[in-house]
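Schema walk-through. Below, the input block comes first and the output block second. Nothing else is stored per chain. Lengths vary across the set, and this one has 429 residues.
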Amino acid sequence: MSWINDRENRRYFGFAVIFCLLLMIFCLWSGWMQGVRVRDSLFQWERTAASSLLEQGVDRGTVAQAFASETVTEEGESLLRMIGHTKENVPVLFSVSDEAVRSAVPLFLMAGAVFSLLLLSGTVFYMERRERQIERAGAVVERYAAGDFSSRLTRGGTGAFQRLLGKTDQLATALQAKSENESRSKEFLKDTVTDISHQLKTPLAALNMYAEIISAEPEKPETVKAFAEKATVSLGRMERLIYLLLKMMRLDAGSVTFENRLIRVGELAEMASEDLITRAEKEGKQLLFEGEEDALVGCDPDWTAEALGNLIKNGLDHTEEGGTVRVSWAASPAMIRICVEDDGSGILPEEIHHIFKRFYRSSSSLDTQGIGLGLPLAKSIVEGQGGVLSVQSRLGEGTIFTMAFPISQSERSRKEAGKRVDKGEEKSA
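--- output ---
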């Protein structure tokens, strides 16, 4: 009886119960009134019969005995037929009862009409009320279809109709979220295309200029060589821009499945800095690594090395000659932290909340060739694996980026097992 949970159904059911009670009361009253009239008719017949017998000299005891007797004899029935007391003559013999029956017919007809009208009125009221609810729901659904989600179908209720409205509301909420996501995606795509066009415009213009100079002075090897090197630098910048954009798009599209396996943090740092150590030496900067040798982190090594490499590159970009970029790591029972610290220019306090936005470059940056995608890519990679990337900085003193990855129970068990194996090997040795 789940339909009883609907408030409108309960109201109509209550109306039907009251209607049935009233109908029963009326029937009982009518039956009682009919009984009273039949009783009065029988009493009148008995008074008339007793008076007639006494007037004819019949003994009182005989009369009383006749009225008290319940025995029916053939002679009695024959006498009644002889004097016309048959079923066909009941209306004449018992006129009071017959009159009561005839007067009850219009009463019952009128009562039936009244109760039928009451039942029909209640049903029509219920159906019209339900129709208005459905029309209101239809109007809201039409607004949903038009993209207007300002209205809601229901505020609660446990009936089947209310549950249907609630499910429709949930569908509308999902559609609204999807519509908002699509709008944000379109806006983001628009901004991204604009930013890409802007970022590519400068190196393309430079390449065109270098090509014109080389074409105009092919007989000057020094000029050709100099501008060919500059063209190579511009091509490298474009290559890195496209490379980073492709990775960002893969992450945004959700097409990247991160592998989770244990790797030593020192090995991860080597993977991340493989192409940056030579750069640091050429620029006269120190690249240092500090941390426990057996410290492990559960992550996707290739993607996490990409993120860590971007943080190291950012540190080198923002330090001058003689500066230091330090990569350190430390493990706790619940988390492992990998820090990239530099003593470079630092970040303005009002800009620190914007550095993870795409194509954003700090006004205090020393890097003139930066694209503004390295930090957003690193943040997406770290957070995509359930980690956290945070930053602390003081202007003129340096910046610290910290990647924090949670340590799962399975990783802790594997680490403890590895330690027990190492201890066993030491004892056996």
